[in-house]
UniProtKB/TrEMBL annotation:
Pfam families on file: WBS_methylT (PF12589)
Compositional bias (Basic and acidic residues): 43-69
Swiss-Prot/TrEMBL keywords: Methyltransferase, S-adenosyl-L-methionine, Transferase
Protein name: 18S rRNA (guanine(1575)-N(7))-methyltransferase Bud23 C-terminal domain-containing protein
UniProt superkingdom: Eukaryota
Occurrences of domain 18S rRNA (guanine(1575)-N(7))-methyltransferase Bud23 C-terminal (ranges): 38-118
Transmembrane segments: none
GO molecular function: rRNA (guanine) methyltransferase activity
Biased composition range(s): Basic residues: 70-81
Renumbered residue ranges of the record's region Disordered: 35-87, 99-120
GO terms under biological process: rRNA (guanine-N7)-methylation
Amino acid sequence: MGIAMKSGFQGGLVIDYPNSRKAKKYFLCLFSGGSSEGGAAKAKVEVPKGLDGEDPDRERENVQFEKRREKFKSRQKRKNMKDKDGREWILRKKELYRKRGKESVPNDSKYTGRQRKPVF
């Protein structure tokens, strides 16, 4: 930023939500050229103040995420749930419990992993 100031730019650094780890954003504001007012006297440009999260008019307190990130997470979650669904997964878990020495593991049968009929 110092090099930009030496080159003739004006401006500064604006930080939104400085006390937040997730929502903190840095914005570099640079203004080029000058105003024709005042001639040789340089007018000081005021950099806008960043948001600090204490605005009473603000409705949302959470950070809004992108749709593609949410889609990716839901796709991964679906994939993980698919891995846990089925007879093979149940048999692996039962074998793991037996290796650990757990005594109350149900016996394997031809009905292991099947859906139960709905009872009214």
